[in-house]
Each structure stands twice: as structure tokens, then as C-alpha cells.
Amino acid sequence: MRSIANDAKKSPIVGLSERVYESTKLAALFDVLVDQGCPADEILGNVNLTVDEVHSPKSRISLAELMTACKNAIRLSSDPHLPYRIGTSIHISAYGMYGFAILCCPDFRKAMVFAELYHALAAPLATIEFTEQEGSASWVIEPNARAAADPQIYRFITEMQIGIHISLMRDIMGSAFTPDQINLAYPKADDFSLPADQIGCGLSFASRTNQIVFRSAWLDQAANLGNKTTYPTVVAHCDDLLNDLKSRIGIAGEIRVLLLRNITNPPTLAAIAKLLEVSDRSLRRQLREQGISFRGLLDELRMQIALKYLRTTRLANEDIALALGFSDATNFRRAFRRWTNKSPSEIRGE
Predict the structure, then answer these.
(1) Could you give the strand order of the β-sheet that contains 181-183, starting from the edge strand earlier in sequence?
(2) Strand 181-183 versus strand 202-204 pairing type
(3) What is the spatial distance between Cα 120 and Cα 144, in angstroms, rounded to a whole number?
(4) What predicted TM-score, i.e. pTM, was given to this entire model?
(5) Are 102 and 96 in contact (CB under 8 A)?
(6) Which end of the chain has a smaller Cβ tally under 10 Å, C or N?
(7) For every residue of the chain, which 3-state class applies, written as one string?
(8) For the chain (length 350 residues), average pLDDT per consecutive 10?
(9) Domains and CATH numbers, the chain
């Protein structure tokens, strides 16, 4: 299956604890739970925002805080379709310039490509990938690596993102938009699930990936709200927003990029300092100012990659250890338990 976004620009690599995202998704979750009668202070438990700040355009949150709010939601609500309900409450207008750019795309295929390329602007708890082949199109959704360590959060984020996708597709293509099939990479659960009757298609569980499948014919329709003149201007504004995001994550983002170039044999702090044309001392100081250590950055990346391999591949622990630069599987298992409080086999069994 060929991606039509092969030339995607590099998105900034943001740490889970960096407070750089607008509170759009958190606000949607908050509003749904408040409407259900949940106490506001409990919804925001361990989230560093006040009730008054939830809807403020000046507020910034981290992905870790957003995931904490998702955990609070699971605890507070018995709604069997809660994550999907939250997702579908988010409309294109909630996404500011990113949403406006999607709306202005002159055709729907460009809208799909843009949504994927600039997804970093949407406080992404999951990666998204659009593909199209032989009359069929699909979105593949994979929650971030930290979510992979908690099966319930993994399902919650997947179903919320599916709700967001369906809501946005209906916003731009019309309310009649209906997928042909939704595949989920986990077994059916009893606590919450997707409402097949509201979505309008069948659900398949224990599949290879989380996937929304629909006919390519939907993409052939005229984009009546698209504008060829406005679109380039709005994309330029989104480029500025991406650059602003990169500046907010600072030196840590640059180091993550350099480490990922060769995670099997990662460069030392001294080597990275030389590449960035700063002294070792200056680099350590800048990391300290961001509340991050070099070892912490390397461990964070290794953990994320390990979780992805364990959830989405059948690679043996020995192979994962080698890919991440560990001398043997024993050292990898020891480090993995330190990162997640779980063994690799526990993750595979979930």
C-alpha cells in the first residue's frame, strides 16, 4: 500500500512532558464529562490547568497531561462510547489555522495529505497515515508509544482518534460520509467501544492495525469550500506554527532528531555538542533549563521504539535489543522494566 505523503516534511519530535500544545482536545474531553455531571476538579486531577484555563487560547499542555485526563475520564464516566463521543465533539473549527487549512484545500486528496503532514499541530496522541490503492483509501492510526504500555489507554486514544477522523471527514465531505470498515488491533472489550450503528459500518477486532477504510470515490467529490488562492497563504501560516513549535521544544528536539538518526549506535553528548556547534557544558546547561537530561532523552526514545516494536512486530527481544544498541536481551529487559515497570512479555501479552 503506497502512501501519498512520501515527501512529508519532518515534524518536530516533542517529548511527552513538554507543555507546547493548545488545549483543544483536553477542552473537548472536559466539556463532555462536565455535561455528564463529572466534577470539574476530578476531570483535571493531576493536570496542571485550572477550570478557567481549559478553554483559554493561551493555555499550553503536554501530551502526558492529555493522557492523564484520558485516564481520569475512564475512571469518572461509565459512558460505553465515551472516547468516540469525545472525538466526534471535535470539529474542524476547533483546530484553528490547521483546521482552516484543511477546509481550504482545493481537493480532498490534498486535504488528506495536509492533515497528515501537519498533524503535529493537533496535539497528537497517535500517528496517522493516509494511503490509497485501487479504489480504496484508509487512515491507519497508532497511539503513541507510551499509550502502548496501557491497553485501556491505547484503546481509548484509538477510539477517540477514530471519532475525530470521522467528525472531520464529515465536516469537509458532508454528513453522509460513512467508512466501509473499521479495523481495530485489539480484542473487543466490555468497558467502552465504538458505536457501529452511529458510524454506519462493521467493526473488525484483533486486526493487524487500527484502520478506517473508505471508498476512494469520496475523494473524487468537489471540495466546495476549498480555495486555491487562500490555501497557500494558510499553509504558510501553518509552517510558521510548526517553526514556533520547534522553537518551543528547544535543544531537546534537536537532540532527539540526532539520536534517532542512529539509535543503534547513538552519538555521545560530546558528539552532539560538536554537531550543534556548542560546548558540552553549554549543552548540559540548556538541557537542565528544560528539566531534561541527555540520558533521559535517550531512554525516552529507546522506550518509545521498544514499545512500538513489541506491539506491532514479532521481533524477538534479542533483535529489539540489538536495534536499540543494547549488548544483549538481558540488559534490554532490565532497562525496559525500569522504564515501564513491566517486562517485554507483559506488553506482548496485553
Answers:
(1) 126-133, 136-143, 210-215, 181-183, 202-204
(2) parallel
(3) 12
(4) 0.84
(5) no
(6) N
(7) CCECCCCCCCCCCCCCCCCCECCHHHHHHHHHHHHCCCCHHHHCCCCCCCHHHCCCCCCCECHHHHHHHHHHHHHHCCCCCHHHHHHHCCCHHHHHHHHHHHHHCCCHHHHHHHHHHCHHHHCCCEEEEEEEECCEEEEEEEECHHHHCCHHHHHHHHHHHHHHHHHHHHHHHCCCCCCCEEECCCCCCCCCCCCHHHHCCEEECCCCCEEEEEEHHHHHCCCCCCCCCHHHHHHHHHHHHHHHHHHHHHHHHHHHHHHHCCCCCCCCHHHHHHHCCCCHHHHHHHHHHCCCCHHHHHHHHHHHHHHHHHHHCCCCHHHHHHHCCCCCHHHHHHHHHHHHCCCHHHHHHC
(8) 40 85 97 98 97 96 96 97 98 96 96 96 95 96 85 96 98 97 95 96 95 98 95 94 86 89 93 94 90 90 88 89 94 94 86
(9) 24-226 (3.90.1520), 250-349 (1.10.10.60)
Residue whose grid cell is 500517528: 127
